[in-house]
Amino acid sequence: MKTLRVGDSLPSWELPSVSREKMKTMAPLLADPNPIHFDTDVVRALGMGERPVNQGPNNLAYVMNMIAAWAGGQQYLRRIRVRFQGNVLGDDHVVARGTVTGLRSEDGCTLADCDVDLVVVNGERTDVVLSGTATVDVSHHTD
Fold first, then answer.
1. 143 falls within a domain
2. DSSP 3-state of 31
3. Cα R_g (the chain), whole angstroms
4. Which of 5, 30, 122, 124 is deepest in the core (most CB within 10 A)?
5. Three-class SS of residue 28?
6. Is residue 4 part of a domain?
7. Is the Cβ–Cβ distance between 103 and 110 less than 8 Å?
8. Residue 6 phi/psi, 5° resolution?
């Protein structure tokens, strides 16, 4: 088992292409009738380009997927706070990333505080569209 240290990077979680069809499916599941998530005519009429805008909860879920994969399951995520900073569009390539910023013991558990973000990859450039912090129980962490 690898010793976890402040400064360690979490393994990134990558989605090469955000699905437009899944946005359509998620709109009713999230009770979000905003047509910018599924109607490109509306997106175009609003001057927002040609691609639908992904729902914020989906973007947050990508970061949570990264944490769960690293920690060994979603049950180890204790807290997450994020700020939405930009849009993810249909067909975008996104990468969730994280870095351990602190390690501490609390109630018999080892907790890792992490900085997390979600970026849209555009060739050589990455645009941060979500950033925040997470606290993860790493008591049973294996690498």
1. no
2. coil
3. 17
4. 30
5. helix
6. no
7. yes
8. -60, 135
Read off the amino acid at residue 50. E
Beta bridge partners of 128: 119
Determine, yes or no, domain membership for 3. no
CATH of the domain at 36: 3.10.129.10
Assess contact for 38 and 23: CB atoms under 8 A.
yes
Confirm whether 65 is domain-assigned. Answer: yes
What pTM was computed for the model?
0.92
Question: Going by DSSP bridges, is the β-strand pair 109-122/125-137 parallel, antiparallel, or unpaired?
Answer: antiparallel
Maximum pairwise Cα distance, the chain: 55
Residue range 95-138, pLDDT digits in tens: 999 999 999 999 999 999 999 999 999 887 889 999 999 999 99
Residues 48-83 pLDDT 10s: 999 999 999 999 999 999 999 999 999 999 999 999
Give the domain extent around 130: 9-137
Q: How many CB atoms lie within 10 A of CB 54?
A: 25
Amino acid (one-letter) located at 27: A
DSSP 29: H
